[in-house]
Amino acid sequence: MTESVIETSGLVKDHVSNFLRKRFRALDGLTLSVPRGEAFGLLGPNGAGKTTTLKLLLGLLKPTAGTCQVLGHKAGDRKALSRIGFLPENPYFYSYLTAGEFLDFFGRLFNLPGRERKERSRQLLEMVSLSEAADRPIRKFSKGMLQRLGLAQCLINDPELVFLDEPNSGLDPIGRRDMRHIVLKLKDEGKTIFLNSHLLPDVNELCDRIVILHRGKCVAEARVQEISRGGNYRDLEEYFLESIKAAEEDFQARSHPLSAST
Ligand SMILES: Nc1ncnc2c1ncn2[C@@H]1O[C@H](COP(=O)(O)OP(=O)(O)OP(=O)(O)O)[C@@H](O)[C@H]1O
Ligand SMILES: [Mg+2]
User: Fold this and answer.
1) For 216-245, how does the pLDDT look when each residue is reduced to its tens digit (9 = 90+)?
2) Residue 149 near residue 128, CB atoms below 8 Å
3) How far apart are the first and last CA of the chain?
4) What is the pLDDT of residues 111-137, one digit of tens each?
5) Which of 19, 50, 54 to mutate to test the pocket of ligand 1 (most atoms within 8 A of CB)?
6) How far apart are CA 68 and CA 107, in angstroms?
């Protein structure tokens, strides 16, 4: 049996507002298993709970209930984090560093020796087409250049599990294509990919399997190749839209049972 690199069981996250301490359930009982080497896509409308899930898996948020294990450790354990790469939704950059210095800084955090840091930074900058900008301060980078640098940073430790939260955000068509090629290369190398994305054609090309979240709950799960083969859906987009429509109708019916029955 293939080893699972991500395992969650009944994962719940409530956010509590500062005002009136009101609770909001962002994630509602997610049970998930991602095997080694899989490219997994977590989909869902804005606010569905995708980034919340990712933060729980990285140990950046503590679950309200349920469990999550990553690479055989409790989420957030240092032993697992050293083997993980993470491209956040809104990456933060030290703007006065150059791109090369920035990657070198992250290489130091992972205790890479000097020569290896230099070589790896060079390779990664080339991979994301930023070699020419290696010595420019990051504050002069465009949005898409920052996103490319974020991707390079998340691969500095040659991670075996890569979390990508909206990696295509802000990229031009060339950047989007490059990003797809990079992710496919990572997949070929046997790495496990956990991708949050709204760009369904990219998800279709990259992911083996997807889960759709709606209001914090898993409402659909499918192997991407089987979606159109089954004959019920034209493509992933139709599957996504139909799943969300059915889930929202179900939610409304449960929230207002009287109006649904009249
Ligand atoms: N720190 C927080 N405090 C309170 N509520 C939060 C917090 N972070 C997220 N939420 C709420 O939790 C829900 C899920 O947010 P999350 O960021 O996980 O959504 P998402 O699926 O990643 O959406 P998007 O596609 O827009 O990135 C949203 O309703 C959001 O408002
Ligand atoms: Mg998000």
Assistant:
1) 999 999 999 999 888 889 999 999 999 999
2) yes
3) 50
4) 999 999 999 999 999 999 999 999 999
5) 50
6) 27
